[in-house]
User: Fold these one by one.
Assistant:
Number 1:
Amino acid sequence: MKKLKTLGVLLICLIVNISCSDNDSNVELSDKQNLTKKTWTFDKFKFLDSSNNNGKYTSEDFQNKVNTLYNSLTMEFNDSGKGTLKSNSSQLIKNFTWKLTDNKLEMTLPNPNEATDDVVTYNITINNSQLALTMTEELVIFINGDELNVRGLQYYK
């Protein structure tokens, strides 16, 4: 049964407002240092855009479903190029690998429904307290068996 293809793909179609667990420094750091020094906590998800929706999901429907399933989602990036996604509400824990090249962040997440991993690439803008990710290509997610092609911006704060 196809639900959300992976959490990484789900995140593509969302605007995310998050809070940082560590806001104690105004020192200019590299993008990698800024990314790895915090645990990013996702507070709110907002639906963006999709095709093949056929009017089945309004932004409110989608947002409510995602907020219920993935409340208090946290993301950690460590220095070795590995990371973890955790969700308190659904007991979800996913490990991923990542690499940062110039302003491109690539995350590779295991896909439980297919043999190949999901690779998601974002344009990244980051400073000490804010992280903005813009998806670079359209991907497919599944909600209650319905296929949606999604493209959008993610924003963490």
Number 2:
Amino acid sequence: MVSNPKIGTFTSKSIGDYISLKDTIFLKNTQQLERHPLRKSANYFIEIKPPLYQKPFVKSIFASFRYNPKKLKSYKIGGMKTFKQLLFIVIVAIIIGSGCAGSKKKKNEYNKPAIFWYQGILREILFANLETADNYYSSLQSEHINSPLVPEAMLALGQAHMKKKEYVLASFYFDEYIKRFGTEKNVDYLTFLKLQSHYYAFKNHSKDQEFISNAIGSLGDFIEKYPNSRYRPYVEYMQIKFILGQNELNRAIANVYKKRHKPEGVKRYLERVDETLEKETKPKPSHMPWYVFIFDW
């Protein structure tokens, strides 16, 4: 098969398999390349390029076998590598171009009907793109302030932000809904959602003293204003949890005063502990990881 490997000229038994043109041969497909005698030769590297006169992804390939004296124990398929790099560049260019076109399209979106913005809000919520959904709400609010879809969008965004643990934004939407669209029939439910967002936002008892006090006050106001609400049991449960957290916080502060030898501070904060609730509920101390405990009080 090989007359002189060092020179790089090849011959063939069948001209249908490949045509010898010194160091260049034409193969019909990749299977023939795999069967070629120089495929595993250590003295050659292989460069594959698609024929310029044929369309891409055809069976035929244009293979060049060249002598490689510097790298006698290696070969490479350079044409396919170049093709993959070119394909990658084209894909990246398409993505960047479509992104720029999409952003340009979004900038030109204005004076749309209310249903357009509302559907966009629901679509972005479905795909968890809440930032875009918030932007759509701003457009809906500014272009159709009296639309009946505005309160529906506010409620949907509030619940979506709470599900994503963005409780500050959730509380904002619920609070705005209460101020603008609250009625006797729905105000207790909306207030409950707002208090629930505060409850889930409570993370660290030792760092949120003011937050606990405000939350307990708001929960107490709800029970006083809506004694017959169906959401009252849930609010009472949250109130108990906050009071227990406040008890633990007061004990922690009393412990700090104890270490500083200030008995008056110890007495003042221990008096704030609800001993009756502690006896009835018998709460377990909050779990604190060891790496937090080292730097804690």
Number 3:
Amino acid sequence: MLATVTWPDGKTRQYLYENSQFRWALTGITDEAGARFATYAYDVQGRAITTEHAGGINKTQLQFLDNGQTTVTSSDGSSRTYAFQLQQNVLRPTSVSAPCLECGSVTKAFTYDDSGSLSSKFDFDNKETRYTYDTLGRETQRIEGYGTANAQTTTTEWHPTWRLPVKIASPSRVDYFTYDAKGQVVGYAWFPTIDANGSQGLSATPSGPMTSTGWTYDANGLATATVEMIGDAVTGQWYFTYDADGNLQTLTDRDGKVGRALQYDAAGRLLDAINMDGERVRYQYNARGSLIAYEVDGRVSNYEYDANGFLTAIRGPASYYEGYEYDAAHRLTARLLPATVQNVDTSNPFGPLSSDRPVPPDSGRVQSTWSALWTRLKDWVTSWIPSANAQAGWQRILIPRWPSRSQAPINAPASPADELQEGAGIRQNPNTLLQQVDRTLRDLATRVTDAMTCDEDPRCTRARADAQSAYHNITTKRLPQYLTGGTAGADEKHRKSILDRQIALKDAIRRVRLYCVAWPLELPEWERVANMEVPILY
């Protein structure tokens, strides 16, 4: 049994097995700071009956009834009872007595076909979602709101051999995928349709031009070229080269602009590069692989972490600082911002600065603009979070009890291509696109535990992840670099990179609102960042 995990920096996480009857049963976890943050308990049959984090946070209790049903009580005190049926030696949920408002589950009943695949589910408004499959168990049609005037249909045609979609018809659009003999995506295209509800399936009539992307690969399966088109017009073209280890070396666009990766470490993490705007970008990491320094043309942002690896501070030029605090349950509990004047202003924090606005003594344009900007930002934040306590040198802004950790470690760039040019990662590697599709179209019959794990729509899961990623990118990298270097040169490109990420964040928020039943508590903060005005500092 796993007893400890020791990180390269020497910090250790310990796994506890304290149940003398079931010695294999995990009963707790002690984190890298030496604090117990998770506890699990079992009944006399070895079934888990409680799980909680430090201080009873997120406590969930399970009661196994004599009739084979299970009652689950959430941390908010609400409870619901699940019924099951045994089919082909698999215990499948069939009904739920009440919705889980805390986690977003609103499914009350499930039915299955003879193969065990989910054939329909009903929510607490009695709206039905119906599924059909091919002989390989792949979803071919999904109708949400079945039998109603608002029914929405998604139709999928699959590759004859691989578990890869070829055509997907959904409301107002049709998507196409083509593959080579190795199963690599060589083409992706989509066009809008007049079919607002998807009922026409793959026969839907186009209402606009086709947008397409094509890829070519080398013998090692690495993308060497990408071309994007709208109709017959080429809108973008990129070329990629690699070193002997398969690390991206150069990225060239259709105009001949080149971005170069100059150095990687032994783990394949990007250390040094010149992006397509000609900026020198450098990265430093700690022993765990978390980013500790991010430099753009000499402007450095530093990142600090606690023993658990959580981000605790961002420091940059011009006295830039933002800190984070966590509780024993690993929840983000407070933000630390520079202290400024105590005036309260609930207007947009990035709006025009009033001429009579009190600011600290002027120490140059950057410092003056920065101080005034932070004054607006701090005052605006405190207007919607009532518990803001002034301290010497900084403000401690309490955070509502968010269920998810909001400031995870900053890791190496997921795609070095994105560091050479914003958004180039998916152009280099179409697998990201396929993964998004798979999350939506994967075989629902394999998700037999979904009723016990909130039955979250995979589109909601993806949207939340995209929103968190875009928010994280703006607040921990793009914005600090821009605000502290606005007069150091031509910074229009830095501002544009923030605006591009804001567009991505807005799209993710739109999908969160569309697909998530329970909206994340982070949503107001995401919306603030997505809609904030980015000042012109150049």
Number 4:
Amino acid sequence: MKLLLALCLVGIVAASRPPGEAQLTSYENVHNGRGNYRFGYSQSDGTVFEQEGTLKNEGQEEESLAVRGKFSWVGPDGVTYTVTFVADEDGYQPEIEQGPGGAVPSAILHSLAG
């Protein structure tokens, strides 16, 4: 679980730009107090992050958190990169999309896939 959160935070940091360059345009942080949550934000530079966690098998030995989300940013090359992910009992499963400009470098694919 801690690894999952660490991977999500790495994605956020990788998608962010230097402070002061972008303004926060929306923010959402909702928790139901029982493990389910929804979090997201968008910035004036095109960066977007959305994540939703759902508690599965609540109160049972197999209780776990399933997380779905996506983050996107506009790279220095002007291309919008989007990572859509699921993190659950089957591990972290990213899908990477890239706007016009070429293929996603294999080093990025390997680093996200673990």
